[in-house]
Each structure stands twice: as C-alpha cells, then as structure tokens.
Amino acid sequence: MSLTIADDGSPVYDSEETPLLKQHKKTPLPILQIGIGLILQICEPICSQSIYPYINELVSTLGITGGDERKVGYYAGLIESLFFVTEAITVLQWSRLSDHIGRKPVILVGLTGIMLSILCFGLSRTFVTLVISRCLCGLLNGNIGVMKSLMGELTDPTNRAEAFALMPVTWSMGMSLGPLIGGSLARPSDRFPNAFSAEFWKEFPYFLPCIASASIVFVVFLVAALFLKETVPKRNARPKRPSSPSPDCTLAEAVEPPSSHEPLPLQKLLVFPVVISILNYTTLAVLNISVNALLPLFFHMPLDMGGLDLEPVTIGYIIGVYGAGTGLFQFLFFAKLVRRFGPRRMFVTSLSAFIPIFLMFPVVNIVAKTLGVSLLVWVLVGCQLVLLFFMDTAYGCIFMYITASAPNKRSLGATNGLSQTTVAAARAIGPALSTSLFSFSVERNILGGYGVYAFFTLFSALSLLLAVRLPHQIWAESQELDG
C-alpha cells in the first residue's frame, strides 16, 4: 500500500485496504494536558512583548543617545536582541536535557528564569543592568523548544492540526496582553497619580508592568507544578511493540518503532527533513521578529523621521490588537485552511504576505506626512494588521513540519532544541538589524529614509525560494502509516 497527499492535505491510497489512519479515526485530544501546554506558552510573549510600548522611551531617558533620537533604534534593537542571543547559547542544551530528565523540570526552571529577569528589568536604571536582565532571561529559558516537544508528544497526525492551530492562539494572547500591560501600566505615577504617588514609582516608572507580567508567570508556574504530567517515559520503562495493532491502541502506539525509545546523537539529526524545516522556520522568524521590532519604532518616531509619533499607550493598544487578531484568526481558520489547501501551500502563501507588509510602512508614513494621522492612515494600519494576522498562519504550518521531521520520538526535544537554537540566533539578529537599518536609512536618507523596507521586501521575496522546497506531504504521515 502506498500513500500520497492530495492538494487539500488529505491522504489518498492506491489500495483497497483500510489504512491505519482510517481505522483509528481522529484521536481525541487530552484536553487538560493540552490546555496546560498552551497556557505555558503565554508567558514568554507576555514578558518579552510588554517592554515594546516603552522600550524606545526608556532608552531615550537613559542618556545614552546624547539626545539624538535617530540613535534610539540602535540601543533598543540591542536590548531586544540580547534575549535571543543568550537563548541561542543554551536552548539546545535545555531541550536535549529534557529528552533525558523530562519536559516538566526544564519547563519549571524556564518559568523561574522568566520571572527573575522581568523583575530585574523593571528595577534597572542603567543600560548595563537592562542588558544583564535580558541575558539572564535568555540563559535560563529553554522552554520554547521544550513546549513544542511537549505538544508534539501529546498529539499524533490525526489531531495535530487542531492542537497546533491553538499554539499561535495562546502565543498571540501573550502578544496581545504583553503590550497592553506595558502600555497601560508604564509610568503609573503620571497616569494614576492618586494610586501611585510614592517616590518608588517615579524612580522605577516601568516596574509596575514588569511585576504584573511576573505575577502571571507565577500563576502559570503553580499550575504547571501541580497539574502538568510528564510526557517523556522513564528510561527503564520501554513499551513492547505489538506484532499487530490492537483496536484499542492509539495510532502513535501502533506505529512506534523500537528505535524511538532512545535519543539520537546530534549529528544524526541533520537529515534533510530536519534541515529544510529549520531553515524555513529561521527565515520566517527573522522576518517576523523584524516586523515586531519595526512596528513600535515606526509608531514612536516623529513623522519627519519616518514614523507616526504616537504615545506609548496607543502603541500598546495597536500591538495588542495585532496579538488578539492573530490569535482569533488562527483559532477560527488555521485548521480549516490547512486541511483545505495543505500545509505547504499555506506556508508559502502566508510567507508571501511579508512583501506587502513591508511595502506599506513607507506608504503609511507618506500619507501621514501629507494628511496627518487621519482616518486613511488608520485604515492603512488596519490593512497591515490584517496581513499580519494571515502571516502568522505560517507558524502552525512549520511547527507541523518540524515535529514530523524528528528521526524518532525520543529525539523530538533535540530536534526542537536545534530549531530553536538557529531561530534564536536569527531572532537575535533580527531586531538589531531591522532597527539599526531603520536608523541608518533615516540618518543617511537612503531611498528617502525608507531603505530598510526595500531591504526586507527583497529578503521576503528570496525567502520564498526556500519555502517551495518543502514537500507537499509531511514526512511523519507516511512514516507512521507505513511503520
């Protein structure tokens, strides 16, 4: 019996035999554990995104730019990138460690690291202490790869699209809550003078959003510590593979090869499915993190420097709408679109949305210079946000490819760790590169100050050449069905 995948992503067989996937239908999702796994993913975006509404203002108040607003982008981008630089150093080690000792202890350590770092960030009054707090968060946080492994182990090919459709939803919730917290609670002594009149809030004007973010992480830590179940089996508890599938066994159990009980060495992970999936994830991450860094900078900078000159609270609301809209779009449409068009077609189409997204930045600024920040400007910003909603569909698709590319199940953590290492390195480059190019374009008047957008439009077009190398068929579907 052979298997092919139709354009709509459904399996097509050339045999009259009943395929294993049809025998088992769609496996019900373990709702409680999936729910906890999804909640875990909300912590990092809340803590990382909460600084975006005020980070450029904070840099301006530190006195490190010498009063030159055009240099804000250099330092803000550096601070935003440091988390990913240090995460790239340790995320693979954390993920490989989770293959051996389990996902839960590594996740709990990561949550502790996030709490400590965001509290330190709020208490920082110098550029050096800001740098140290961001580095601390990256070094201790290996959760992003481990949580993807956890979700992969809680699902199988029959229900993975539904579960992975929810991953961007919770991530987007964090992206929505983070900026809302940061924009609404920054400088509380100015915005809420009656409740926050103490000198402490004037001395540390950005501590309130930090402690609010840390409190959310603490609640999630307690939930994980009490209710999260370990998904990595004990090394001395190898299940025996039945000679033929039992009617009561799950699809994953029926097709699991004996070799899936031992983690593979790192060099054996570098096979084509893993490499091509990781490369596409990396290009997606570079483009996305660059947009995320450019948006608040674009909104903050004066009109004559290529921005919109908006207040931090307004910036927080806009980025919050971006996060909420993305989550709602993924929840309503991701699984349906993937089943209708297939993960490859959806990934390529979603990635292509970056081209108009970057081209709209100079258009919005030109309209604002001509007509002011008018209704037309907000309509154009809204169109840009809608494109961003659709673009985020690419994440669920590439997560499915990465999960399926792991050579065996006990190497899933290492595979996700390897992907997060390269992506963390790329994300470390993205904010610093994009914000620095913004400042460089404005300072040197490259293409009228819009040179940064020309660069990323070209990069977006070139990334499609890599995206089309992904196969129409996800590897694990044929491997597990033929297993």
TrEMBL record:
**InterPro entries cross-referenced by the UniProt entry:** MFS (IPR011701), MFS_dom (IPR020846), MFS_trans_sf (IPR036259)
Organism superkingdom: Eukaryota
Q: Which residues form the signal peptide?
A: none
Q: How does it sit in the membrane?
A: Multi-pass membrane protein
Quote the cellular component terms of the Gene Ontology held in the record: membrane
Statement: the UniProt record of this protein carries the keyword Protein transport: no
Which PROSITE patterns does the UniProt entry name for this protein? MFS
Q: Where is this region: Disordered?
A: 235-261
In which compartments does the protein localize? Membrane
For this entry, the protein name equals Major facilitator superfamily (MFS) profile domain-containing protein
